[in-house]
Amino acid sequence: MAYVLAVTILEGQIAAGMWVDFVTGVSWQRGPISAVEYHKGSKAGDVWLIFRCATEEELGRWKLMAIRDDIMQAFEPPTLLAGLH
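The structure corresponding to this sequence follows.
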C-alpha cells in the first residue's frame, strides 16, 4: 500500500528518505518519502511523492488529511548519532 501525493517543488531539492512537514495549520511531520517520480510532459517542479503505508490505518490517516493546496517543507531526518563524537 502507498499514498501518492502530487506536489510542485518551489525551491530546493526533494529525494527519497526525506520527510515532509505541513507548515500551514498544525505541524504534521510524515515520512520517509519512499520514492519521488518525475513525469515527462509535466511542468518543471511537478512530481509525485510516494509514501509506503504498512497498514490500512496509516493509509487512512493520509486520506483523512484531504491535502489540497497546502504548503509543506521537506527535510532530512535527524540522525540518532548527531552531535556524538
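The mean pLDDT is 85.
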